[in-house]
């Protein structure tokens, strides 16, 4: 080194050393005093300005470290970040300050908050070095003045402004629009978040002045994509990220404005209402585009191949859950930059093996081909060179795609998967075995091979080899053997579902210690046995436990309720458990049916305040219903059927879904204090209840099912039954009801099944029954679906998978499940059939059998076109079988036996193509039975027996022989249609009367002409009268003498 330069070198080195010491000193000094004082003034302002904070001093809950103390460094305060070099405050988070659940947010509150932004912006003036400000999730529902946000313009260093989730009302949007225009002076502002507010398309022009923006998020607003204002987006020449997901976009014209932003790298349009074909021609001009997300729209048709493949820099392509069809563009093989490719939930077709993206193997990390229309064989050999692959999903192909994971020559993957989902696939069809390449995968977090017909021993090595495994779903396969636990404490696994397999043996005692963080465990429908391991009681995070349909025995430890503090769903149904059922505080769904329990008890110091669903049916429990079951306002369903309960039904019960007390030992009157106004399903069959139907039941306006069969109810059906307008199933059979069937039943138009059999009803069948829908309108349905998302790679696109929260939601928050799967037993086709779920929705029936009904069958019954079962047997009905029955196109069972019906069987009934049961035995029917065609070719002579004047197959009596005995020749085509045995009642009575009159007058005329015969007849009548008189006199005298002696 030159000696002349050496002094300068040491001088510069010393200067740098002094600079480092200065910086370190500044770091040690902490935040600047001016900014510390400014923050303390800000805290005081928040307490004074926000009523909820002032009412409950909530600022101290949110900002406990913001204290005026000389040793308190504001850079260490929560919601604050300082620059480590300068000490200036650069990030401030004031999100979610205004919402306190203890405070009543009335109109006055929101009015007071109207000036909040203006005053807040004044307080922030001292924090001029801020580059990030978060004021989100504060729900300003008031009105803002023209001066408010624009005061933030003094924060010239601001780079990120977060204002999401404030629910700005539509009335203040014009004010805000002007505000955003004034913020154009913030030349450093790069990120603006306006998610989940109330903005519509008018907000777009006001943002055009923020030319420095690189990221703009407008998720969850009311944008529709129309209007000229969208053209002003072209001024945002530096914009790289545009997020418009979860809006109301339905006008694709805005895409023409977006393509003018040449700098755009990310475009997110998921969960909108965009329809038609996707205009790839315009998007092709976005040559810098790296991320394109179209998930959850209504796009359809084929993809424009050449324009689409012009996006050479595209890294993330998400077309999932649309209606795209056809084959995938072959040019996708030239897209070497792909990282994420998701085409799930569309209608893409073609050969599966030719649909993969071959050239992208070096960069692809995420592939999802689930739920499409691919066919053929897909071999995993194609993934041999995919070194970065982390997520592979190929679900729901309905066995139309055969997935081969092994290959003829074997292969060794270069990748380490984190997620593999091959649910509902035809997986390794030739060997039905689990993929062997998984033996060398050691970073798996999610494995879903459910519903794939896999066989062999249970793959315990999957758990042993993957210490980061979170989700294991192998349900509905044919694995056998025992479930062995890993040799280490597995802290990551939260969900395990191996239900519906052939596992046997006992659960290891230390399962609770090996899986301490398990939240969902489903081992149902296996062959497991033994006692319940006590270590399960120590699983603090367990929310769902399903061990139903196994062979477990012994008692259920009380600690399962006291130790598993998070347990919400417990299903131990159909095992051999005994002892006492314990109900804990946090449980929401408890299924203990089909065991040998003898009692039920509340865990000491517990409540049932959160209980939604309790099923203890089919046990051996006796005693009265515990009154503590009425101490919850959330109770949805209580099922206690098939036990030995007795006594009174507690008036405290308050169900809104199902109450099932059937087949117990209850008797006497139903309590008049029972108040169930929101009940939907009531089952009381198989008890000994007496009296009439309590009028309190008619107040249950939401009632869908009323089943009180096989009791001892008496009296008539009250006309107040018309109040049950939502009723769909009415079952009153097997009681002692009397009187007529009231016409008010016809007002229950929603009825699907009506059973009044085995009572003592009299009178005629109501003519108005045709007004009831009988299945034309199906019962209500429910649909809940959830999805968990977790980011796992580079921030391009969340890896979505069915994880813990989805399973838990399906277990205890699915409304259809909580309502219980309604099951109805209805006699049809000579057997007791149970209908439930979707089958029940399509079942309709009418049963008036075994009563004392008289009169003819109403012709209007033939108008109930949706009826599937009709039973009028064992009554005293007369008249003919209505020919209108031929219109009951869906009828499957018709029983008119044991009545006094006459006339012919209508030949048009042959048109009933669904008819499986037909019975008209023991009536007074005559004529030829319908031809043995279609369904009538399956009915035997037992269907017609007991009708003397019926003839023709399958009966032994031939109609042809009877016709040969008829001496009267046919005279015309009309007369030839008449049968030999037909007698017109009017002709018969007329001819008889005329013949009698002619005979009488002929005798009288003969006596009048011949006096001798007249005299002889007179003497004969006189002798006859005297003989009768003396016979009667002599008989009475002898009888009198006998009585005196």
Describe this structure as you would to a colleague.
It comes from Juglans regia (English walnut). This protein has 1045 residues and is α/β, with parallel strands linked by helices. Among the domains are: 28-189, Leucine-rich repeat, LRR (right-handed beta-alpha superhelix) (Alpha-Beta Horseshoe), CATH 3.80.10; 716-782 and 822-960, Ribonuclease Inhibitor (Leucine-rich repeat, LRR (right-handed beta-alpha superhelix)); 788-818, no CATH class; 961-995, no CATH class. The strands form 7 sheets. The chain has a 32-stranded mixed β-sheet, covered by helices on one side. It has a 10-stranded parallel β-sheet with strand order 41-43-45-47-49-55-57-59-61-62, with no helix packed on it. The protein has a 7-stranded parallel β-sheet with strand order 9-11-13-15-17-19-21, with no helix packed on it. Strand 7, helix 9 and strand 8 (266-268) form a beta-alpha-beta unit. Residues 21-28, 101-107, 142-147, 778-805, 812-820 and 964-981 have low confidence and may be disordered.
Task: Specify the structural class.
Answer: alpha/beta
CA-CA gap between termini:
172 Å
Supply Rg: 42 Å
| Overall morphology | elongated
CATH homologous superfamily caption of the domain at 716-782 and 822-960: Ribonuclease Inhibitor
| Strand count | 62
Poorly predicted spans: 21-28, 101-107, 142-147, 778-805, 812-820, 964-981
């Amino acid at each position: 080194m030159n000696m002349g330069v050496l002094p300068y070198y040491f001088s510069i080195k010393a200067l740098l050393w002094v600079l480092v010491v200065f910086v370190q000193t500044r770091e040690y000094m902490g935040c600047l005093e001016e900014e510390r004082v400014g923050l303390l003034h800000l805290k005081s302002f928040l307490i004074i300005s926000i009523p909820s904070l002032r009412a409950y001093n909530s600022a101290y809950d949110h900002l406990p470290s913001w204290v005026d103390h000389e040793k308190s460094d504001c850079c260490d305060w929560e919601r604050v970040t300082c620059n480590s070099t300068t000490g200036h405050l650069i990030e401030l988070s004031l999100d979610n300050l205004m919402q306190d659940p203890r405070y009543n947010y009335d109109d006055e509150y929101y009015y007071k908050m109207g000036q909040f932004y203006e005053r807040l912006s004044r307080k922030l003036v001292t924090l001029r070095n801020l580059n990030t400000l978060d004021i989100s999730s504060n729900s300003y529902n008031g009105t803002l003045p023209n001066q408010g946000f624009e005061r933030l313009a003094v924060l010239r260093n601001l780079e990120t402004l977060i204002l999401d989730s404030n629910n700005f009302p539509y009335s203040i949007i014009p004010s805000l629009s002007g505000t955003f225009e004034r913020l154009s002076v913030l030349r450093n502002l790069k990120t603006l978040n306006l998610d989940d507010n109330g903005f519509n398309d008018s907000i777009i022009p006001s943002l055009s002045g923020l030319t420095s923006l690189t990221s703009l998020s407008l998720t969850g607003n009311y944008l529709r994509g129309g209007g000229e204002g969208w053209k002003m987006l072209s001024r945002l020449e530096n914009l790289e990220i545009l997020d418009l997901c979860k809006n109301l976009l339905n006008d694709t014209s805005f895409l023409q404005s977006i393509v003018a932003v040449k700098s755009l790298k990310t475009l997110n349009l998921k969960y909108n209402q965009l329809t038609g074909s996707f205009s790839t021609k315009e998007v092709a001009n976005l040559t810098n585009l790296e991320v394109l997300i179209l998930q959850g729209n209504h796009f359809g048709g084929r993809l424009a191949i050449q324009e689409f493949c012009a996006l050479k820099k595209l890294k993330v392509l998400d077309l999932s859950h649309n209606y795209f069809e056809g084959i995938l563009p072959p040019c996708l093989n030239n897209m070497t930059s792909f990282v994420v490719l998701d085409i799930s939930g569309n209608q893409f077709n073609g050969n599966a093996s030719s649909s993969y993206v071959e050239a992208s193997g070096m960069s692809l990390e995420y592939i999802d081909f689930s739920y499409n229309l691919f066919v053929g064989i897909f071999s995993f050999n194609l993934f041999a060179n995919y070194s970065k692959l982390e997520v592979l999903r190929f679900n729901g192909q309905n066995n139309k795609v055969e997935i081969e994971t092994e290959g003829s020559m074997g292969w060794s993957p270069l990748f380490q998967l984190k997620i593999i989902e091959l649910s509902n696939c035809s997986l390794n069809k030739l060997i039905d075995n689990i993929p062997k390449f998984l033996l060398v995968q050691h970073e798996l977090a999610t494995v879903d091979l459910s519903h794939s017909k896999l066989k062999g021993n249970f793959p315990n090595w999957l758990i042993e080899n993957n210490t980061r495994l979170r989700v294991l779903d192998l349900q509905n396969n044919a694995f056998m053997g025992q479930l062995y636990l890993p040799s280490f404490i597995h802290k990551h696994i939260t969900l395990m579902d191996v239900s519906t397999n052939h596992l046997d043996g006992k659960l290891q005692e230390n399962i609770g210690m090996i899986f301490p963080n398990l939240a969902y465990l489903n081992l149902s429908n296996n062959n497991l046995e033994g006692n319940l391991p006590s270590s399960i009681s120590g699983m603090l995070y367990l929310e769902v436990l399903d061990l139903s349909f196994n062979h477990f025995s012994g008692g259920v430890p009380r600690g399962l309720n006291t130790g598993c503090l998070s347990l919400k769903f417990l299903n131990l149904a159909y095992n051999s458990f005994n002892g006492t059922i314990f109900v804990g505080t946090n449980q929401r769904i408890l299924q203990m049916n089909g065991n040998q329990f003898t009692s039920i008890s509340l865990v000491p110091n517990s409540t049932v305040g959160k209980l939604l669903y309790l099923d203890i049916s089919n046990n051996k429990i006796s005693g009265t219903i515990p009154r503590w079951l009425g101490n919850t306002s959330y109770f949805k369903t209580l099922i206690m059927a098939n036990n030995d309960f007795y006594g009174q039904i507690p008036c405290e019960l308050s169900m809104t879904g199902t109450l099932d007390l059937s087949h117990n030992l209850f008797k006497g009157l139903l309590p008049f204090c029972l108040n169930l106004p929101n009940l939907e399903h009531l089952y009381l069959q198989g008890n000994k209840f007496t009296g009439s139907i309590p009028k309190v039941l008619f107040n249950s306006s939401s009632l869908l099912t009323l089943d009180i069969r096989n009791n001892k109810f008496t009296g008539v059906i009250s006309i107040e039954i018309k109040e049950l307008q939502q009723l769909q199933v009415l079952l009153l059979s097997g009681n002692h009801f009397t009187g007529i069937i009231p016409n008010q039943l016809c007002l229950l138009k929603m009825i699907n099944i009506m059973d009044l059999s085995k009572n003592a009803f009299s009178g005629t069948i109501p003519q108005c029954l045709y007004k009831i829908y009988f299945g034309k309108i199906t019962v209500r349905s429910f649909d809940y679906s959830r999805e968990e998302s977790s980011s796992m790679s580079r921030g391009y696109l969340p890896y979505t998978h069915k994880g813990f929260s989805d399973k838990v939601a399906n277990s205890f928050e699915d409304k259809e499940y909580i309502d219980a799967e309604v099951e109805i037993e209805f006699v049809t086709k000579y057997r007791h059939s149970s209908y439930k779920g979707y089958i029940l929705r399509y079942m309709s029936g009418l049963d008036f059998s075994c009563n004392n009904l008289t009169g003819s069958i109403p012709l209007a019954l033939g108008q109930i076109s949706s009826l599937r079962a009709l039973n009028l047997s064992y009554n005293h009905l007369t008249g003919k079988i209505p020919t209108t029955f031929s219109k009951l196109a869906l009828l499957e069972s018709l029983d008119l036996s044991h009545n006094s019906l006459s006339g012919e069987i209508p030949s048009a009934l042959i048109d009933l193509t669904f008819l499986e049961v037909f019975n008209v035995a023991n009536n007074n029917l005559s004529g030829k039975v319908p031809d043995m065609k279609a369904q009538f070719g399956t009915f035997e002579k037992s269907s017609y027996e007991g009708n003397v004047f019926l003839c023709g197959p399958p009966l032994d009596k031939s109609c042809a022989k009877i016709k040969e005995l008829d001496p009267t020749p046919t005279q015309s085509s009309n007369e030839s249609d008449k049968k030999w045995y037909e007698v017109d009642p009017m002709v018969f009575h007329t001819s008889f009367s005329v013949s009698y009159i002619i005979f009488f007058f002929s005798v009288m005329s003969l006596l009048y002409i011949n006096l001798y015969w007249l005299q002889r007849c007179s003497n004969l009548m006189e002798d006859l009268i005297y003989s009768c008189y003396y016979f009667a006199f002599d008989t009475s005298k002898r009888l009198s003498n006998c009585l005196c002696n």
